[in-house]
Amino acid sequence: MPYSTNTRLSDNELTMENKTRPTEIDLVYLWVNGNDPQWRAKHDAVTGRTQIQKSLDGKGRYAENGELKYSLRSIEMYAPWIRKIFIVTDNQRPEWLDTSHPKIQIVDHTEIMPKESLPCFNSSVIEHFLPRIPGLAEHFLFANDDMLLNRPVTPSTFFAPDGLPIIRFHYKPCRKLSLWFRKNFLKRKKLGNYNQIIKNAADLVEKKYGIYFGSRSHHNIDAYLKSDYAHTGEIFKEALAPTFPHHIRHDEDIQRHLYSYCALAEKRAHLHYVTRKTSFRLQIHEAHLYSKLERYNPTFLCMNDSQFANDDDRLRSAGYLKKRFPRKSQFEK
Known about the structure:
By secondary structure, this protein is an alpha/beta fold. Helices cover 34% and strands 14% of the residues. It has a single domain (11-324), classed as Alpha-Beta Complex (Spore Coat Polysaccharide Biosynthesis Protein SpsA, Chain A), CATH 3.90.550.10. The strands form three sheets. It has a five-stranded mixed β-sheet with strand order 3-2-1-4-7. The protein has a three-stranded mixed β-sheet with strand order 5-10-9. Mean pLDDT is 88; it is low at 1-10 and 12-19.
């Protein structure tokens, strides 16, 4: 079973462990340097570059714009209590990163993923195997490299006093109806990939528990329990299996929202809704959003690249981050 761990806790043991907030919390990043010629050659050989949809596999999915450096600076500033930082990569290392730092550990895809998934250019697949990371704490946070902290946080920001994760969603009470309306009345027969794979997760949970979660993650640092991953992975083992051979994004993928939806359905998590004052996702191609970001001054910040961004947008984003986080962190050479 790809999501199982060597220390699966029984329900009673997990209940006892969760009576107090955790003292050990790790952070996991996914990172890729899409500018690397060797990585690009491998990617193109596997995927067939000319046949890939830009929205599924364009430059914005993999462009290296230095975000991880600034994200780590934000962690040092605002969450120094993080125990260990794992960076999951495909045979790559950021050249500026001090990999000898005791808090930093590079994890290669081959260490945690099955052969059928490799090589993998699909974050929706990689995320299912995070609990396989050697030495990962039971309580962990997950982030993409473009997700940053903008204010101080504590363990209680992510885990409640009972030790269960706090799940942050955008409030979308009529999302199921909205998706149905778009398909049937606006003649948009196909959802975008991100919306579709989240819907796939929501549909699975609705079928199992009779509850439909229409809300989406705030697209920033999220909290998980390693044992939750194992528990949910076992429940949906057969449904998840077809996702794992998808080397690039596929509309039949099951997104990691599944783990949060299942935890909420079983009352093993706490739901919090966000606003732009708490979590702000800045699409870097939309220059007007920078002034809104300054006005809202949120706790969580995401500098989101996409198929709509160009190199000028990336330069503007890098300039903003350099100004916002100018001090070199202990994780840099």
